Amino acid sequence: MTKTKKLINNPDSIIFEMVEGFLGAHPHLVTRHGQTGRALVAVDGPREGKVGIVIGGGSGHEPAFLGYVGRGLADAVAVGNVFASPSPEPILEATRAADGGAGVLYLYGNYSGDVMNFDMAAEEAAAEGIAVRTVVVTDDVASAPTERAHERRGIAGDFFVFKIAGAAADRMASLEEVVAVAEKANRSTFTMGVALGSCSLPQTLKPNFSIGEDEMEIGMGIHGEPGIGREPLESADSVTDKLLDRIFAELTLSPGDEVAVLVNGLGSTSLMELYLLHRRTKQRLDEKKVQIYHSFVGEYVTSLEMAGASITLLKLDEELKTLLDHPCHTAALQVGSVTSGQRVSRSSGPEHRASSTHPGRRSESAGEGAAQGERPGGEVTPQIFRAMFRNVAAAILARKDWLSELDGVIGDGDHGVTMALGWAAVDRALDEVTAEEDIEAVCKRMAKAFLDAVGASSGPLYATAFLRAGASASGRIGLDAAALVAFLEAAAAGIRERGKAEPGDKTMVDAWVPAAEAASRALREGGSALACLKAAARGAEEGMNATAKIAARKGRSSKLGERSLGHIDPGAASTFVMLSAMAEALEQELSSSSGAASGE
Ligand code: ADP
Ligand code: MG
Known about the structure:
The chain is an alpha/beta fold. It has helices at 14-25, 88-98, 112-127, 158-170, 175-187, 236-248, 271-287, 318-325, 382-398, 400-410, 415-431, 439-454, 458-472, 481-499, 509-524, 529-547, 570-594; strands spanning 30-32, 39-42, 52-59, 70-71, 76-82, 104-109, 132-137, 189-197, 215-218, 229-232, 258-265, 291-298, 307-315, 328-330, 334-335. α7 links the parallel β11 (258-265) and β12.
């Protein structure tokens, strides 16, 4: 397959370099905050007594999201990797930067990865005494039927919801009021998109999906998630009609109503074409005697270089009109003229943070006085434990392309890239482990490293798995068979708790649950740690294969429903890779350390 062409230096530093470029271009608007380099704050946005607005999401949607930071709009943004949610740490940094003592509102598009990462950040912010509320944007009509409108994805409509809420906060409305008006804006915003051509991640340079020369896909998501149907490409007017008909089916408009219109290009569609779409949109609204109060035509929420466009209508009332007109000054949107505000004066920064448990610090439950020798161990010694996870890192790297390809079919194509990043970070974190650290401390290190490196859905899911698994072995220095099984069960339970997916929803839970069950069965039959781990790997493999037979109900691919049939779930696949690599390493270490039979 031919590679796509991009102007990049190194795909691994693309986010850092983009942020640096952005800050260099707009130093009067935005500055960095905190240690991650991924939290940006408006220079005169946050101020005492004002509700802080924090937005964020994956990169690749520029000018969203960082382009909407500035006076009168968002106060701070957390920047994720390409098409992957930012992790909790930058979100927390953005939260601290935006906090003016009146609470903080999180606004972002409704994707399970973003929801889990923002929720984890909100939990930590609450622990620091910052009141956080969340409104997720759900404007994509194509992504779920009316009765499940709350499950819809957030796409170009982010723009309107951010603008309205940012204005309300700038006018010093209370947190409750800003939440209420953001919810109203979200309820009144409807988007339909069409894709004509694919986009490619900088890391893969391969089209994220394929689409025929004469085809279009109605309702495709802004990460290339499949829409509601492939059709032969039609004229600008009839495509506009198709998009608007779906919107009009949801949004009742009567003569005299007023709307704001956003015709948004996805990345490589000319402005000329966007104006054709607007032309037809106006004709249709004129027919209905609906007034266009204000129009926005251009690139507002893109999808890398995807070809295509979306149309968004926001139904207005007096309050929404006032807020739409409220001045703002950001890189991507300027309305009226703003008077410069005062930066929040209180000290803010990492030192402000209530200290959380250091991942390298030995857990309390290990007992401060306990000498290493008194702590329970097992066949899985500390060295073997580390070797197992190093082998996972190697195996994930080796299967990276496969995992991304699986995710390209039913998700957004980043799973291999995301997992490889996370496991490379885990590998580095394992270098820092000291001899006296127990399993729980090592797991905390792995969780933090993984989460800080990736975000996405897999970040919070695997990080929670590490944390829960580590806690199950609290005080232990190694694992025997029973402790290993408890470790796997706790990992599975952590993933279910964080993602709220059930077996049968077609997620990694469908590999973790049979893996943990198989391990526990092996234990009951008197199996060794190795026998239990091998059983877990086989259970994960069976679970992974079975995901091909079910339609997705959770995560990004749930929007596909039946169309996900026949494809295995990428998260279930990475679970299988992970457990088999653990088993493989354990077997190797046991045979090389003792030279004796493996005990199976
Ligand atoms: P993203 O979906 O944010 O792009 P990844 O591609 O890294 O994240 O991971 C996708 C995988 O995450 C899916 O294949 C699925 O197994 C898993 N997943 C998504 N949502 C959930 C959830 N709520 N619970 C459990 N697993 C989930
Ligand atoms: Mg993905």
